[in-house]
Design a protein that fits this description.
The chain has 240 residues and is mainly beta. It is built from 3 helices and 18 strands. Strands 3, 4, 6, 7 and 8 form a 5-stranded antiparallel β-sheet that branches. The protein starts with 11 loop residues before the first helix and ends with a strand.
Length: 240
């Protein structure tokens, strides 16, 4: 006489749920073998200042080992990834892609893979990156000269890592229209603020009180991006 095991109707949903959960786990294990997910790099993203475009990532918190990392990049729309030659098998957590992403008009992707002997992680992709729209700008450099006519403020825009033939850095004015903002404080009291077109490298301020200690700071404003740099370091003089 055969025996049949009856499953109460109330238990059927629970049994189905357990079976589905087991299938999901098995499927996950098939896609990512043991060890791969535990070394995958985290938070892969670009950080860009003055068009120095550096890819950063964090090591996986689940991994107690120190894997090697491999970096690739491509221009948006391209089918093929390109190895970043100086970032193959590295131990660090960043890769300078300024040269590879030198065309500020293009959009780029980068991806990172971690590897240990006998195991490698899936590739981890960055968000789409455009240097022109996403770079941050440093304050301009300031130089002061006291003359009988007043205080001459000389300004120099930040430089990018892209080099000219004579190894001099290219000013970011090549890609951005800048406005310099100059802040003047005399005897610790804010006196005035000046705005100067970025094409101008020099400003004469003639209305400061004589025999007064005045400090100057400058910032860069990019109007079409609505973005302003931090103020630079203070430079101080005593007026005549």
């Amino acid at each position: 006489m055969s025996m049949e095991v009856m499953v109460p109707n109330l238990l059927l949903p629970a049994v189905c749920l357990m079976l589905c959960f087991s299938l999901i786990l098995c499927s996950k294990d098939l896609n990512i073998p043991d060890g791969q997910g535990e070394i995958s790099p985290q938070d892969v993203k670009f950080h860009s200042v003055d068009y120095r475009n550096v890819l950063h990532w964090n090591p996986n918190a689940l991994s107690s080992s120190e894997p090697q990392y491999y970096v690739q990049y491509k221009i948006y729309g391209d089918k093929h990834w390109v190895n970043v030659t100086h970032c193959q098998g590295i131990r660090g957590h960043l890769c300078d892609l300024s040269k590879e992403t030198a065309d500020a008009r293009e959009y780029y992707y980068a991806r990172v893979q971690a590897a240990l002997p006998g195991v490698h992680s899936p590739w981890v992709l960055s968000s789409r990156f455009n240097p022109h729209w996403q770079t941050s700008i440093s304050p301009p450099r300031l130089k002061l000269e006291v003359t009988e006519q007043g205080t001459v403020v000389q300004l120099r825009a930040p430089s990018s890592p892209n080099m000219r033939k004579k190894d001099s850095c290219v000013s970011i004015r090549k890609w951005q229209r800048l406005i310099y903002r100059i802040y003047v404080t005399c005897d610790n009291i804010v006196q005035e603020e000046h705005s100067v077109n970025g094409c101008t490298n020099e400003l004469l301020i003639a209305d400061l009180r004589p025999s007064t200690t005045c400090c100057f700071q400058a910032a860069v404003h990019i109007q079409h991006l609505g973005r302003t740099s931090a103020k630079g370091k203070k430079s101080c003089i005593t007026t005549l």
